[in-house]
Amino acid sequence: MKELTERQSQVLTFVRKFMRDNGSAPTQREIADAIGCSSANAAMLLLKALERKGALTIRTGRSRGIVLNDSTSAPDFDTWLQSQAVPIEVDCGCVTAEVLLYWVKKAYSDGARAGAGEVEVAK
């Protein structure tokens, strides 16, 4: 990654912390407020500079579409779920797929990670 300016480092640090604390990326407005800019467009210009330098990727057309490109950050839940090579099978009859997905997503956003065969069911 190319060297960042002080302002770009400030934005990247904020985005990392926000994603760690909230489980999703901040909006342009949240970034602007955090760094003391009156314009969300200023935040977008800084994000585009960070993207050009390889620090992050901006998914156009998606709200909160910022993905960090370093190995220390976890992918967003949808990206992680799509990358799973082994299907997630559930056959307990006591929970709907929607309820299960809600709790898996919550655990993921809280920092829980599991690979294939690593999930245990507690009664």
Automatic annotation (TrEMBL):
One of its GO terms (biological process) is proteolysis. Pfam families: LexA_DNA_bind. One of its GO terms (molecular function) is serine-type endopeptidase activity. InterPro entries: LexA_DNA-bd_dom (IPR006199), LexA_repressor (IPR050077), WH-like_DNA-bd_sf (IPR036388), WH_DNA-bd_sf (IPR036390). Residues 1-65 form the LexA repressor DNA-binding domain. Keywords: Hydrolase. Its EC number is 3.4.21.88. This is LexA DNA binding domain protein. It comes from Serratia odorifera DSM 4582.
